[in-house]
Amino acid sequence: MLMRYTGAIYLAMALFSGPVFAQSATITADLGGNDKSVSISAQNITDTAPSTAAVGRHPDGIGANGRQASAPSIKAETGYDPVTNKSEHLYFTFTGPVVRAELDLTYFYADEVVAGEASLHEQGIWRAYAGNQQVDQGYFISTASDGAYQLLITTRRPFDRLEIFATPYVNDEGKEVGAGKITTDSSDFLVKSLSYLPAHADARR
């Protein structure tokens, strides 16, 4: 378990030390639901499939609109439910291939809970797809005491769909909180903004 998270941390460091977006080619998506280049859908815990109707909207971002855990603070957050051991999911589908994406998350906290002497952090997973084939994935763990976290995604090959979801709290050693240990809340977040680089605009590839 520790090796997996250590690898994820080193990967995140490598991504943030790499080249910055070509700003002139980067597109900022309209998350209001009117962007024809990016469609947004979500899947709540009780849903059988994602839909646009399941997208939750809040002044500080978007997510899945269902309730999770026994006392979530913001209904629109995409969250992991420690009672059912399931997560809500948020999807971004692009009209063409993308090579990089940058998401600004809100309400995604480091040290959100202290259990005994352990600080617990919010955590999530992203998965990138080309058609129905998954091309890459990664974990992201909050390092933001104010909940404002920047998630940068680069992949082995272009993708046209991005999936993100929450997982159980995780400690400094990368160990997840076991199911049923904390049932009042867990990892959850909103997506405040999304910028992406189309494959044809990436001069490095």
Description:
The protein is built from 1 helix and 12 strands. The protein is mainly beta and 205 residues long. The strands form 2 sheets. Strands 1, 2, 5, 6, 7, 8, 9, 10, 11 and 12 form a 10-stranded antiparallel β-sheet that branches. Strands 3-4 form a two-stranded antiparallel sheet. Strand 5 (78-81) and strand 6 form a beta hairpin. The longest helix is centred in the first third of the chain and has 16 residues, at 2-17.
Core attributes:
205 residues, mainly beta, ten-stranded antiparallel beta sheet, 8% helix, globular, disordered N terminus
Brief account:
With 205 residues, the protein is mainly beta.
Rg = 16 Å
What proportion of the residues is helical, as a percent range?
A: under 10%
Basic shape: globular
Describe the largest sheet: 10 strands, antiparallel
**pLDDT < 50 stretches:** 1-22
Distance between the termini: 34 Å
Number of helices: 1
Number of strands: 12
**Chain oligomer state:** single chain
Per DSSP, what share of the residues sits in E-state strands of 2 or more residues? over 45%
Order of helices and strands: HEEEEEEEEEEEE
**Class by SSE composition:** mainly beta
Q: Can you give the mean pLDDT?
A: 87
